[in-house]
Specification:
Two copies of one chain form a homodimer. Chain A has 211 residues and is an alpha+beta fold. The first copy, chain A, folds into two domains: 86 residues, Jelly Rolls, CATH 2.60.120; 94 residues, Arc Repressor Mutant, subunit A, CATH 1.10.10.10. Helix content of chain A is 40%, strand content 24%. In chain A, strands 2-6-4-5 form a four-stranded antiparallel β-sheet. In chain A, a hairpin with a 2-residue loop joins strand 10 and strand 11. In chain A, helix 1 packs across helix 2 and helix 3 crosses helix 6. Chain A is globular and about 55 Å long. The model of chain A has no long low-confidence stretch (mean pLDDT 94). The first copy, chain A, binds a DNA duplex (30 and 30 nucleotides) through helix 5.
DNA sequence: CGGAGTCTTGACCGTTGTCAATGTTGGTGG
DNA sequence: CCACCAACATTGACAACGGTCAAGACTCCG
């Protein structure tokens, strides 16, 4: 287990690691850096996530993994994971399900970036983060910690940081959210979801594992 | 095994199917229909693909699956797949890998839609399709079948069909591609990949299964 | 108190969307 | 073999969304 400061690259694009990360505390993100200078964040990760579980099966990292805030990360050798999976086949199923749910989130991100206008795009991202944080007990009744700068939100939504700023003002103006310091207050969850066209089905949270 | 005409929905958003599809012939796509009327295609599928393999683990479809061209599809009951996986654990690993590679493709789509300009976005999609078709022996030396209308390409790239048209002209004007009927000719693969910023690593094609 | 990082604002520009009309093509039936 | 039709591709004019640049305000932290 190790601690890292904010904005630190933990796994590099092209790496071939022999262990997986388990995020204990803090926010991480997966991203790709383009040669044009642009950067696209492809996922956010919160405590409890295994952000690079796929390295158990895919040798080469096709993206980078880094911290957004100070983080505590546990490293688990692939060897140990493979032994565990061999011993507890249900764990293999759980890992597979994890991968599938991640894929479902990626799909929704494609939709978000591909065809929602600025304000809805941000609103949708907020809904998703709120749901996920809620699931692991890290949300409050009326909102959640949101230690993401507007530049980071821009890299995740395909918008410029200036435009993110304007769209946040738009959302505040609509009475959907409020922000103080690094806390995102959700003023009316129903309205926010309706506005964003958010449907939590894709997070597959209510489904029960088949025996 | 059944045949379907073009533009037919095979699995609906919200369904809870008890079988998986194996695409034998033709092109399929996964997509989400928004209430705003917009549609986002999240993946294309070619012969050999299992486009809804995730239904083995995730009960509810969070997107739709349909044909783009006339297709031949084989249906395999989940029950049969679970039995197979029980008998041949390597198959479970293969399925997991399949899901992971699909996820990698989704990640790249997020990047594509999120931060590449129109022409590069189309070029990148063409590179991906060419690689994948090549892998299953369905490409020619200088290009591949491309039975996708400009409206479909638009729904996949987050562009309007009118803009797709203009960007195609741009690519033709740069001497990168040519199109006749439903065939996409790739005039200079190197140049096209460079232009698109395409790096096939994310397709994880050269990697060997660990024993 | 000072400074770095972040947020906010305004002006302007470029990319992309929309609408509507016109070509073009492949397939079908006479 | 030809006429016709529907789907698709193409064009032009215009509008809107979002990007860029540059400056200034705020906030947190040492």
């Amino acid at each position: 287990m190790r601690s890292f400061p904010a904005d630190q690259e933990i796994v590099r694009d092209g790496d071939d690691p022999d262990h997986c990360c388990l995020l204990i505390e803090g926010f991480m993100h997966c991203y790709k850096q383009l040669e044009t200078g642009k950067r696209q964040i492809v996922s956010f990760h919160i405590p409890g996530d295994l952000p690079d579980l796929q390295t158990m099966q895919l040798n080469v990292m096709d993206h980078a993994l880094g911290t957004l805030t100070p983080c505590v990360v546990a490293f688990i050798p692939h060897r140990a994971l493979h032994l565990l999976v061999g011993e507890f086949p249900n764990l293999a199923v759980a890992f597979w399900r994890d991968s599938l749910i991640n894929a479902a989130i990626f799909r929704e991100w494609v939709v978000n970036v591909g065809c929602r206008p600025g304000p809805q795009r941000l609103a949708h991202l907020f809904c998703e983060l709120f749901y996920r944080l809620e699931t692991v007990g890290l949300a409050h009744k009326d909102g959640c910690e949101m230690p993401l700068t507007q530049a980071v939100l821009g890299d995740a939504t395909g918008l410029s940081s200036v435009h993110v700023n304007r769209m946040m003002q738009d959302l505040r103006g609509r009475g959907l959210i409020a922000t103080k310091a690094k806390f995102l207050q959700i003023l009316d969850r129903e309205k926010l979801q309706d506005f964003a066209g958010f449907d939590p089905t894709y997070l597959h949270m209510k489904e029960v594992l088949s025996p």
